[in-house]
From TrEMBL:
Stored PANTHER family: AP-5 COMPLEX SUBUNIT ZETA-1
Pfam families per UniProt: SPG48, TPR_AP5Z1, TPR_AP5Z1_C
Span of domain AP-5 complex subunit zeta-1 C-terminal TPR: 468-814
Top-level taxonomy: Eukaryota, Metazoa, Chordata, Craniata, Vertebrata
Name of the protein in question: Adaptor related protein complex 5 subunit zeta 1
Annotated ranges, domain AP-5 complex subunit zeta-1 ARM repeats: 339-456
Organism: Sander lucioperca
Any one GO cellular component localisation term in the record: AP-5 adaptor complex
Amino acid sequence: MYSHGAESLIKQAREIQESELQKFYSRLVKLLQGKELGHETIDSLQRLHLILSATKYTRTLPPELQKKVQSLLSSPKEHFQVLSSAVLRETLPLSGQEGNYNQENISQLNSHAAVLLLSQAGSRADLSSLCAQLLRSLESRQSEVPAHSLTHTLPILNTILTLSPECLTDDHVTLLNKKLVDWLRYASITQGGGASSGGFFTGPRSRQPVPTAELDGAVSGDFFTVLCVGQGFTEDQWMNVYSFSMLRHWLLTYHSVLSGNGTADTANRLQLSLSLSHSFSNDDRSEVDGSVVSIVSATSSSGRLLPPKERLREKSFQYCLRLIEQSDRKAHRKTDTDLQKACLVEAVCILDCVCEEDASLVFRAFPCIKALFGRLSSDLSFARVLLPIAQFYLNHGEMAAVDCESVWKLVFGRFPAELFNDHFLAHELLRFLRLNLKSLQHRVPQYTRSFPNLLKFLAWDSPAVVDDFVDLLPSLVTAGTAVELLHTLLDLPCLSATLVLQVRSTCLPISEPGGRGLQSPDAYRNPSFRGLFLFLLRGDAGSGDTIDRLSTLHELLAETADWPRVVQCAQTVPLLLHIFFNTVITGADEKLLSHLILVMLERSSLLLNIPEYNKEIQRVFSSHLLRFCKLHPSLVVDQSHELLEFAGATANVYSKEGIYTHVVWVLGEYLSVSCDSRCSVRLITSCFEALEAVLFEITSSVPPPGADCPAPRVVTTLMSALAKLASRSHDLIPRVSLFLSKLRTLTRGGSVAWCSDEEDLVAIVTRGEELWSLLKAPGVAQSVLTPPPHVTTPQWHRDTNVAMPLRLRALTSLTHSQ
């Protein structure tokens, strides 16, 4: 793990003697007392950190050294801050100083000191004490607290809020509400550091305050926000930025502090907020300095003062409207444009929070949100901004009685269709769907019909989003979409290849330069095949379950079978099919299950030619075909014609061994009067004849060229199915017995053409002799091959409520030798 040199240093650090360690402590104290701290001091601090961290035992530094190292936290050189913080994190606090967060510590607060303070908080009481001290520092006059320490106070409070919200008392919450209001709404509107007016007599007294500017260069006409720019910023402007960065987290959390319940119901929050006054405060200090009042500021007038919590909500609302207003300005730099987008996302999310708290704000916010959507909806570069807007429409559109159709057309239409290769958008959109799954199912009918579009994310980057679709897929399965969704899942590798072709067609020539022409890109652009690809790229369900020329499509995409994206996509399909069938079987009726059986039989041979993919799909089909028929045995009679047609095709024995074996087993097991009264002797006879013909053909001829010998499991399953059918119609017993006797006679001569392995042949013959022996007593054969439910269902030897298991265990213990 470590190099030889590193291991040697660690060993030395662990084995240092106490006397040597005390000498090292004394030497380090002398170094720290010097006026200049040079490289020797840095080396000594690094060695001290190694000594402290190399052992699992926590060491306590001498008080004098502890004090010297702690003083380095306020060093102007950051490397000393880093080293001192690292050393102090490895030590216990001095005796009697646990949780001792005094004014001196807070005055030295920086990012490294903040980390240290949090790491030394060993209990909730320590966190509460730290919170109280931090909040007292916020109450102090600015002259009493160093300016730089205030900028680190809010981040550490935000961290504490995340770790343990209950550490804040009601008084703490009220205080911070008031401070956030001051920082958000009443930060100075002049640039920090001042600016010179120019001229010969320029000096300190001639410097005039310069107002902050908007991103387009215009003079800022309203209160300061994160989208105001200048040559320098004042302390309260920096606190404005910090306050906005933690505002949403604070709004989502501080109610849990007041109520002691972090999962407060939204309806309860709305009920609480509706009982409060919705008036606005008129104690505006925003009119000081004679600033120009915008529409946002002009609306804030009322007859009385709001409580701190409601006042913060109102100021947050105004702040976000101001940000939306500022985002319409043309920024000169790309970084500022990106900042506008980020602030828009945060502003809309905060508006959503405050509207959840106070339903009356919905009607004030919606005109602004609606205008913002109209402005951004045509530009897909704002897609990640439009998702919070969609969240706002979902949460509040019904209350405001607004039409959300255009929003969902964009979210479920253009986003997946045109931005399927945007990894960030895919993550955020799928997260949006997962968080709002129930609301979307009940209130947005476009959701369940949009699965052809949504699956493009999966087809493009399966490993990254498969976990999301594991959660989403059950919600997309309905009686109206199940069949088409099954076809779409089976065609996912084709969709993956088509998306790759779509992307390549926009930036690459049709043929590879200097190489052979690729068939797939040419076919993608060929008008004759365009309809096939357009069906795969469709945006909504309902245009048809599948297409007629699937085999043609698979031929066109044959060369894409080894493309990495296509292979990765194919590997996820079996998992999704299991989820699909598990969802269907919980609530589907027999009519739908019957239709799905037909799809499984049809599509078992209509898949993109990826060998492992085909085997896995057939394995999934086989397992769920058994589940369907076990749950509803009457399905075998309903689909007897199609099942017999599939089982009677000898070619399926060689190409679809897995599903073919299960179809034969299902026919032999459930084609019985005890399972369905409609099962007639004629139906049993026709099934027997179809299976008999297949069994005779594969055991009397050589396998087709290029095909392997039929699997022993297929042969034995066919023999067992024939025996079961004959036990239900005794007229068929002689035919089965004749075949089994011939089989035994043929195999006496040695190897046969249809079975290359001698052990397999022995197993087949043994099975045939067992069945032949059973059929000599038809009554016994039926009870053994097709036992009634009351025999197979109880399983007395496993039932712990009866005495049989106890007796079996007792007999076992008696018969076993001690």
